[in-house]
Amino acid sequence: MNRAMRCDSHVHIVGPHDRYPQLAERTYLAGVATLKQLEIISAARAIRRFVIVQPSFYGADNSLLLESLSVLSGRGRGVVVIDPGATSARTLSGMAGQGVRGLRLNLYSPLREKAPLAHRFAAVANLARELGWHIEVIAPLKMLIENASMLEGSGAPIVIDHYGVYADTRPDRADGVALLKLLAMPHVWMKLSAPYRVGGDPLTTKPDPAWLAAILSASPDRCVWGSDWPHTPPHEQQLGGAILAPYRKLRYDALVDDFIVAVGSKELAERILSDNAARLYAFEP
Asked: How far apart, in whole angstroms, are the C-alpha atoms of residue 111 and residue 114?
C-alpha cells in the first residue's frame, strides 16, 4: 500500500478573526488553525490528503474551506454547510469543481439552525442526490436511531460523524445494535474520528475496543479515519463567544498510531486510511 495516499477525512481550518469572522452566537472563540500547520504535523504519518469539514462557528460561509481546497488542489475535498433555499445551482456546481463532495448537517453543536434532523435532511436530500454528494450527519446516537428509517431510505450516501457520538451506550445495547444495523446498509459510512468525543476520557487518543470491533465487523469497507484536528474544546470549556477556548492538547501522531494498533490489522487500517477514503471522496488515482 502506498502510504502517500493516506487521507485525514475530518479536519477543520480556522482563519484570522478579522478576515474570517465567526458567528456572533458562537459558544466559544476558536483559535487560528491553518492548513500549513496541519500539513506540518501530519507529514510524519504520510498523510497528504485532507477532507475539510465546515465548523459550526462559520455557519454557511464556506469561504475559508474553499480557499483551502484551492491550495490543496487535487489533495483536498470539502464538506460544506449551505442554506438550501438560498444557494444557487451555479454556486453548488462551482463548489463541486473545487472538490466539495458532501453537505453537513450538525445536530451536535448547531448555532442558528434549530430545526429537527428530518426537516433539515429533507431540505438537502434532493440536492445531494443531484450532485452525487453525500450527507454528513453529526448527531447524538439517540437522534440517529430515532431517524434511522429516514437515513436507511436515503437516496444519497450517508456519513455518520465521530463513531455515532454514542456517549455511554455500548454496542450490545438496543441503540448500539440499531446503529450497527444502520451501518450494515450499503450507502451508510462511519467516520472513525475523535475518540475523545465519546466515552469518559476527553483526551484519549485510543478508540474504544468494543465499539471499534463492532463497527468494523458491520462495515469494514465503509469506514474512514479522521483526526478532528484541531480538536475542538469540550462543551463545558466553551464559555462564551468572546472567550478563546484552547483546543485539546493531543498529539496527532498518537491519534494515527493508536488507531492503527486498535484496528489490529495493518492491512485493514491502511484500507481505511487510503482506499476507503479515496472511494468515498472520489479522489483521483
From this structure: 7
